Each structure stands twice: as C-alpha cells, then as structure tokens.
Amino acid sequence: MSKKYTITTPIYYVNSVPHIGTALTTLAADVTARYQKMCGNEVFFLTGTDENGTKVKEAAEKAGKDPHAFVDEIAAAFREIWPGMGIEFDDFIRTTEPRHRIAVQEFFRILQEKGHIYRGSYEGWYDVSSETFYKEADLVNGLSPDGNEVRWVKEDNYFFRMSEFGELLLAHIESNPGFIIPETRKNEVVSFIKQGLRDVCISRANPGWGIPVPGDDSQVVYVWFDALINYVAAAGWPAAGWEDRWPASVQWMGKDILTRFHATLWPAMLLGAGLPLPEALVGHAWLLMGDGKISKSKGNVVAPLDLANSLSERSGCSHDVAVDAVRYYMAALMPIDNDATFTYEEFDRLYNTHLANDLGNALNRSLAMSQKFAESIVPGGEVESEAALAIDAAKAAFEKAMAGFRVDHAAEAALSVVRFLNKYIDTRSPWALAKTQDPALPAVLRSMLLCLRTAEGLIRPIMPKTADAVCAQLGVAPLTDWQAIGSEASLPAGTKLQAPQPIFPRLEIAKQEQPKKMEQPKPQPAPAPVKPAEVPTEISIDDFVKVKLKVGRVLEAEPVEGSDKLMKLQVVIGEEKRQIVAGIRKNYSAEDLIGRQVIVCVNLKPVKLRGVESNGMLLAATDADGGAILLQPDREAPEGTGVK
Ligand code: MSP
C-alpha cells in the first residue's frame, strides 16, 4: 500500500471537554487534512484521548466516578464534539484500548532489550497538571515553570537514557530544516538540547491505573512515555503494515508540549527503538483569554459549539455557516510565533468584516449583477488578465502558506481573491459597461464569477459547508480537486446561476454604552400645542430645478457602527461614486440594498453623520412608523440619468 499523508493532533487529556484553545490544534490538523486530500493525497488523520495519567485518575476521583466510566464518558464527548466542528478524523485512539497497551509494552520491551532503559530511584518534583517531572532548579517561586503546583516524589523507577540522544537529535534538526516549525521554537529546542538532556523517569509506582511495565506490575509506564506511543500504535505498529501510516507527515501541537516531549523525548524514543522520525513537528502558540490561560478552574472556558450556536442565533446565519465562521476565526487567528487573545468582539468583527462584507458582498454583488446583466447565465469569453493574475496569486499564496503550515496565511490568501473581486467590480463597473453596451461586459462578468468559484475552492479546507453553499448558488458541483481551482473549466459558460441568497447576515454589533448624561431623566416639557396641518409653501419651477436629482446604484452597504438607524452606502451615479449615509437601516439590510437603483439628491452640502461623511441624500417616502420606503425608477435607468 502506498504511504499516506499522516497528520496527528496531540491526544487530549480527558479531565475536561474541549474548549476553543484545545480545538485550535485539531482545527489546524483538519484544515491540513482537507487541503492535502484536495491535492490528491491519501490522508490518515489521527486524533484521540490520553487517559492513563494521574491527572485523569484524580479528576475521576474528584468527580466521584469510577475512572473507567469517567474516561468512557469524556472520550465519547470528544468523539462527538469534533464532528460537530466539521473535523473529519480517520482514526480516534484511546490510550485505554488494547492496541495501545500492546504497542506501549512492546516499545518498552524493545528499548529495554537495546539497553536504553535502566532501574534507578527518582527524587524530585512532579507537576500533575502537565504530568511533568521537574528538578529544583526548574521551579519558579515554588511552582512549575507554567505556574502549576508541584508535589515531591520519591520512588524507585525505570529510566530512559535520553542523555545519549542529544547529539543525534541536534544533527537531525540541523540536516532537516523543516523538522521543527516555526523557526523561533526550533531555536528553543536546540538550546534546550544543548543544555544537556537528562535521563527521564519513565515509570511510576502502580496506583491501579495505567499500563503496567512489562514484567513488573508494581510500576506503570509514565503517562508521557505511554501517550507518545499512540502515534505508532494507531499506525498499526508493532504488527506488520504500519509503514503506510508512519512516519507522520506532520504532527500538530501547542508550543507547551513541543520542547520537552515531541521534539526531544519522542524522537529519542523512536531513535532508540529504530523507528523513523516524523517529517514535521509544528508547535503553534496559545490562544489566551483576558490576561491568561483558558482553563476550567478560571471559569473562562468557551466551547466552540456554544460560540457557533450563539452566532447563529444572533445573526440568523445557518448552524453550518456558524460552525464554519468559528473555524474561519480560529484559522485566521492561528497563533504561530506569538500568543493571540480571544475576544467575543474580535470574533464578531471578523464575522462582519471578513465574512459578511468581503465574502458575502462579493457573492451577492456578482450574482445580482449576473442576474441583471446576463440573465443569470455564466457568459462565455476570456477572463480578463487582471482577474486571472489575482486568481493565480491567491492560489499560489495559499499553497505557499500550507507548505509552511501557516493556516493563518492560508485564510488570508483564500479571502484575498474576494477582496480583489470587490475592488474589481468597482473599477470595471459592469453597470456602466451595460449602459454603453460595451462588448467587455461578458468577460467582466465571467471574470467576477471565476473569482467566486476560485474563492469557493480556496475556502473549502477552512469552511467546507460555506463552500458548498457558494457552489449551490453558482449552480456547480463542489470543487474538490485542487488542480482545477482557478481553471476556466471549473465554471463552464452557460452554467445557470441561482439568485443571490445572503449566507452571512450581518451581526448587529452591540452599541457602545451611552454616555452618563444621556441617561439622566429629563424634566418633562409641557405638551406641545397641536399644530394645524401645514400648508406647504409654494415654490416656483426655478426653485425646484435647483434640487439636482439623479439615478444611482448602490454598490456597497454597511451599517454605521454605533447607530441603529444609519447605513453607509457607496453609490455609483454616472461616472462618479459617492458615499451616502442614510437613515434606512430599520427597513433595509445591506443585502436588500446592494445592486438596487435609487434616486439621489446630488447637490446637498456634504454633512457628517455619526462622524461619517455623507455626500448626497436618497429619496424615500415615510411609512406610518417613520420608516423609509425608498424610491426607485419604475424600470432600469442608466446610472446618472437626471430626474425631474
Ligand atoms: N495529553 C497531552 C498530549 C499528549 S500527546 C502525545 C496534552 N493534552 S492537553 O489536552 O492538555 O492539550 C492538548 C493540546 O491542546 C496541546 O497541543 C495544547 O497545546 C493545546 N492547548 C490547550 N490549551 C490551549 C490554548 N488555550 N491555546 C492553544 N492551544 C492549547 O497536553
């Protein structure tokens, strides 16, 4: 069988269910898996749960549960949560499974046989939270370097001669520049090794939980030594045939478990056992909340699915799209070198700006204009060169990003094509081309639609369901072959498009608190005397013609932040484009407005409304509640046409 592209996540401790921090690693792995599949690789995507440690045993005791029942319950929760996030793993390994126990005991036996394990006694500190041994000099103010409590341990144990592997590891890192990513973390690993690797204690006194050391039931295998072996156990090792799944092409993890475990202990164990090393280890940075870690004890845990459910409720987008929005947020934020901070505000902001504005508008505008100017049929004709260049550049940037495991850069590249598209629509102005019956119109529309089709392919590894929704509106099958992305054949002329359906309804961003003085109760004025019906003052025709009215078309629309009435519009009027702020938000959404023709008073003095400049006024009737009913020409009129 041919070698698969193997992707692993760390296996998660089952002391609590996933939060957006732990989900980050799994999402990065899923994006990698989906991309590699599109590239034609056969993928083996492995995740699972780490169930044998002291930490898990103590969590079960704290919950008053039998450890077996406890781990079964939480492992089942992990298994369910991941698919709910669109994570498509191929195997889920639990360290309490027989296949894992067999591999761990065999691994231990082989290292023992090769003389890499000896008996000794351990006296030092142990951090249960990270299941790590520390010596006195490692502690900071009596706590572990991560700030966890430590306890003193004195036991007779088995030791692994890790000290013997320092030179070999340094040589491997040196000759394989892609082995540890990113560069900053590689440097940390190198200096950690250069300080001298210590032999590692790899067993603990048997507390009745864990994998017994082969031939010595008084001890269980140290949980990290045990857990790391999951990667080869799931590949099928020690039985024959594991070579099609190991070595891993990439092992994703957070930075906290790279240096001491995946980049030193793990490769040393593999070298000792004579097994091949993984091709790449990627240690991403952390997602923080407020001033620190996301943790159950701090009570600041955000579950990814809760975030999706709340978004769907608040914005009205579908559940699938909300899950994709969470995936997009995590991908776009994916911290590599430096930690990032999660905030609800930033999550909402990215949804509105990147998804509703950039992607949503590009889709709505392109389909609305194709409907208006091409009867919703993909026109023939050559794609214009600037669009072709933008398509190629976005695809190449995505590929480069993924070659270096920069999921954040890949997300940026995927959206670059719709950002280009929005600008392209403005500059090529299909409405103006239609007005003059310019022969370039079909090529412009075709270019717009191919940009969309490309975006659909590029966002697919990150937002698979959204990509499907875009496809449905484009009237084509999902683009699953990476090669085909950007090709003209991916969107044949004659394809019947659907009417635009907004995928990302905008979120109403909570208004800022009103200044205090606004909240003071005002003295109630005496009721105003009822005015008699006003008799309009008569004006002459000369007065009337002073008001210049023209037909315009709304290109872009977005709510003005901090106001529940105002919409900021970009309106094309003949050759010029103007920004107009209108109090129509109560009655019109951005989707209602984009592409619509309006009547504009073009010679009003510019004003600033909520700090946003407005250069004109839309004509509208007023309904009984004071809401706007926009005036619109009875049939399409060229933009810029005068109104009398
Ligand atoms: N069980 C070990 C891994 C054994 S692998 C052979 C473990 N488990 S964990 O559940 O604590 O963490 C799993 C992963 O989640 C790690 O990659 C860790 O870095 C990541 N994260 C946990 N919280 C995180 C954030 N707040 N932000 C980013 N990643 C974080 O370690």
What does it look like?
- 40% of the residues lie in helices and 18% in strands.
- It has 644 residues and is of the alpha/beta class.
- It has three domains: 280 residues, 3-Layer(aba) Sandwich (Rossmann fold); 187 residues, Orthogonal Bundle (Isoleucyl-tRNA Synthetase, Domain 1), CATH 1.10.730; 103 residues, OB fold (Dihydrolipoamide Acetyltransferase, E2P) (Beta Barrel), CATH 2.40.50.
- Strands 1, 2, 3, 4, 8, 13 and 14 form a seven-stranded parallel beta sheet that branches.
- Strand 13, helix 9 and strand 14 form a beta-alpha-beta unit.
- The longest helix has 31 residues.
- The radius of gyration is 31 Å and the shape is elongated.
- 44% of the residues are buried.
- About 3% of the residues have low confidence.
> What overall form do the CA principal axes indicate?
elongated
Q: Compute the gyration radius: what is it?
A: 31 Å
The pLDDT mean sits at: 91
Q: Would you tell me which CATH topology of the largest domain applies?
A: Rossmann fold
The biggest sheet amounts to: 7 strands, parallel
Q: What small molecules accompany the polymer chains?
A: 5'-O-[(L-methionyl)-sulphamoyl]adenosine
Please estimate the helix content. Answer: 40-55%
The total count of strands amounts to 26
Instruction: Give the low-confidence spans.
Output: 511-532
Which structural class do the helices and strands define? Answer: alpha/beta
N/C terminus separation: 77 Å
Q: Can you tell me the CATH superfamily of the largest domain?
A: HUPs
Counting structural domains, the number is: 3
Share of residues in strands: 15-25%
For the record, the CATH class of the largest domain is: Alpha Beta
